[in-house]
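Subject: two folds for Thursday's group meeting

Dear M.,

Sorry for the delay on this. The cluster queue was jammed most of the week, so I only got both jobs back this morning. I'm pasting them in the order they finished. Each block is the input sequence followed by the predicted structure tokens. Could you check whether the formatting survives your parser before we put anything on slides? The first protein is the one we discussed after the seminar.
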Amino acid sequence: MLQTQQDNWNYYGEYIRSWYPDLLELLRLAGIAIESAAKRLRYDEFPEDTARGDFISEAFADPFLDYMRNELNQAISQRLFLAAMFIARKMLETIVIRLFEVVFPKLVNKQYSPTNHELWYDKKHNTFRGLDTLLNVLRERAGSFSRGSRPRR
């Protein structure tokens, strides 16, 4: 097993000496106070009155996305933040898939396009691609979203 103590940097090329100040800054931004004398972290939760209304108030006009929107709003109102995180990720994944279905449709001129379909759907496993794969494909195909032009198919 490789050890970063001797190298003074991690797998991503970030130097260890910068971790501590970066960590302190991230903790500060998250509202976490460091109590040095007690050697503990303190997180003061937001007051209840700051969470007014729905987190996502507008409907999507898509039954699945609207269902997830309701679930997300309920999770946040009940302070189930871990559940809200997973629901939000699934919503983002679904929105990206919907984007692929429009920009890279599986039917082009009423003909099946395996090239387009395989960008967002894994036929071998009969499932949609994961969010990380979808985002990588979006990054690679960014030119297909140029302003004022039709998507390349």
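Second protein, same layout:
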Amino acid sequence: MKKAKPSRTPDEPAAEYDFAGGVRGKYAAPYRAGTNVVVLEPDVAALFPDAKLVNEALRGVGKSIRLQKQHTAA
């Protein structure tokens, strides 16, 4: 016969999760310094199914901007 699981509220973590010795935000600053997260609007995100395609598109835009600057500076 199986033992009944102790009841808990949905907002209460399970007993096996013990964060008593945890430090809040310990990795927040290094993570923020090493990442550049951009949140796309849903309609734009629908055009790009993965990060690789977003990066390729932005590289193309960047190349166009550089070429335009070169032609206007000359």
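Two things I noticed about the second structure. Residues 51-73 form the longest helix (23 residues). The CA atoms of residues 17 and 37 lie 29 Å apart.

Cheers,
T.
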